Amino acid sequence: MAEREVSVLIGGKAGDGISSAGQIIAHLLAQTGYRVHMYFDYPSLIKGGHNFAIIRAAEEGIGAVREQVDFILALNQETVNLHRHRLRERGVVIYDASTVKLAEGIGIPVKNILAAEEAPPVMGNSAIIGGFVRAAGLNWDASSGVLKKSMPKGTEKNLRVARRAYEASEERQQVPGTGKPVLPVLTGNEAISVGLVEADLEIYLSYPMSPTSNILHFLAGYADELRIRVIQPESEIAVILTALGCSYAGSRAVIGTSGGGFCLMTEALSLAGIAELPILVILGQRTGPSTGLATYSAQSDLHFALHAGQGEFPRLIIAPGDAGEARYWSRTGLDLAWKYQIPAIILSDRLICEGLYSVEPETGIRYAAGPVMADPAIHPYLRYAPADYGISPLRFPPAKGEIVRVNSHVHDTDGITTEDPLVTKEMADKRMKKMDRLALEIEGINSINTGGVTDAVIALLCWGSSKGVCEELGKKKGLRVIQPVVLWPFAEKAFAHAMDGVEQFYAVETNESGQLATLVSRFGYRPSGKILKYDGRPFMVEELEAELKKVIS
Amino acid sequence: MTGDELISAAKNTWCPGCGNFAIQHALKDVLISMENEGFPLENIVIVTGIGQHGKIFDFMNLNGFYSLHGRTIPVATGIRLANPDLKVICLTGDGDSYAEGLDHLIFGAKRNLDVTVLVHDNRVYGLTTGQYTPTSPYGYRGRSTPGGVKEYPFNPLELMLSSGASFIARGYTHKRDQLKRLIREALVHKGFSFIDILQICATYNDMSRYYDARIFDWDETEAGDYNTAYGKAREWDYNNDARIGLGVMYRHTAPLFEDNYPVPERLSSAQKLAWVRKIMDERA
Q1: CB distance B68–A241 less than 8 Å?
Q2: Which of A15, A230, A381, B149 has a CB 3.0–4.6 Å from the CB of B132, allowing a cystine?
Q3: pLDDT, tens only, A169-215
Q4: Is the ipTM of this complex over 0.85?
């Protein structure tokens, strides 16, 4: 890990705006050239209950937070009580002196400041942030620029509140700039949205559900500007079937949900499989089973995604490991779904969806080309005509003089229902040919990331949000890190290459059984051990480090 | 296209005397007449559910989407969003739209989606061989209810009226000319047009005599009046032995769902790139 880093915890009760305050702190640190990551922890409540965010900034890209922090920003006493133990030796507590009675550190007279500015209680955040800016020795002018940008409403009053708190505070631990270029900071959900827009998203459909609701909100906010349609149907069943109607008629629709909603979608996922309708599902995992922990994370739906839907049909499953990957793979996933006319799933999780990451603003050229379209001169048009790699060229209705049929039953080349055994087998083979071709294609597109110390003989196997913590500790501990991003079809050759020379490997996952470990065991790879966490929370850096010490000498 | 050309070469597997034939041919006749008046049939898409009614997908030479049980209306919604030039006809059954997919029917009406829904209401599950449906009369003896069903049917017309459907009619497979007129008017109507078609099931629920003895034609001159429509809907509740009115029960004009989501002109790649850069700048 880079030498210079800083961690900040801000806490209060639900409704205090902890998430937005955390984002502002992340931006303040990003502004001085840090790479940042934020973990936001909140119960499924609107008001009351304890919320906190940990913002970590380092010189190099990170995707994990630490147990220990340098600053605690406390909007209430509970925050101090719950998190005081996390404070490093020279750490500082900055607290609201009007509500927190038992604390040592810098007390900000929030109530007085708000009264002096005739500001509403919600601006208490600005006071705490102003206090932090001074305590961390951040430049006021640069910081007030971030505050202005982050608070489009009541900007001047917020700034005055922050300035008063800044003056009431004192510098304790200077956080020096890194001199590196400033990178944008996005949530995973925002990064996914950007990737979808880049891949020509036309219609986004979703029934609200954590942790993907913010994609719905973000895209709805930009719908007019982007000239896309964003729609909230009556159920997840309606969401996916409406999207399949869009696909049939030629519009790129994408849908978002979590495990519970995805359960309702599975019958139509299978329909997409047999009818060969392209569809991209953003599946943000959260802690299950059932309603589980609605606002916490897990990586426990991999096997569900692999097997969802009756029957056998080709599918693409991609699990990005941070916001940058989420953007790239959402874009690529949508293109591949259309190229192969299959259902594709972006298997994200709550930590990526709602976590903040520094991302590279440019991510290079778009990977895949548009769908294979039929030559309008060929008559009659047959929707399921035999074709190279099983990919029948598309036409969308209305097609003059032609009929475009898609069918949930086994069907012939024209889409007419059949029960003929030969046609049944031929059509099954045709669909699976697409899978074979896709499997070949994904071998060549960075489907398996290798990081850490890439020639080490001990490796960590991870996926999705576990990437960040593994990558960091891999570098620190001299371990190879293998992160399959495309999980299905499984890039066997690329995986074998990544594993070349590995003598032992450990699976690091936030689920109870080691779902990726089970998947790779199908290809003959058995881990020496599994480090699993399934309490809804992420692996903290110190936590995984301690676990690794137990298994790796 | 001639009427014969509109019927596909697929082998027909409905029972002899099935009410589905009447619906199929009424639809065919209406579409042919529309084509003769200049409406291009490639702009028609039929969306079918699963049930005996759904086989009509295979029997017609029309664009089609053979969907899942109960799921015609969301598919139709997607097609209309993608291309509002397409005229979408949902062909669905009573099990399909009144049981499995009832939520979509209500929401289609609530939104006044501009599609036509023809419910092949034979009041029995045919494909799964004779179980009761939401419109089967109390006491119906099916294979799952040998002692007679102990639930009362609900009244789809009343339900559609209270849900916001802007065109509501009831037809009957023995009254072909009237059925043709109703389908035509439903297709011409701008908004959610719904026809509950009393369809006899020759094998499991042949109610021909029952219907023949009770049907009469509604006076349609007051079809724009909600309260009159409500009275008509309530007269026969699908269980009592009251007279059974046929024709257009309700018709009014309301804003369309699609009008809220017009197909926009897409951004150019350069405009998209500019948006992405703007977001990145805002977040930096």
Answers
A1: yes
A2: B149
A3: 999 999 999 999 999 999 999 999 999 999 999 999 999 999 999 99
A4: yes
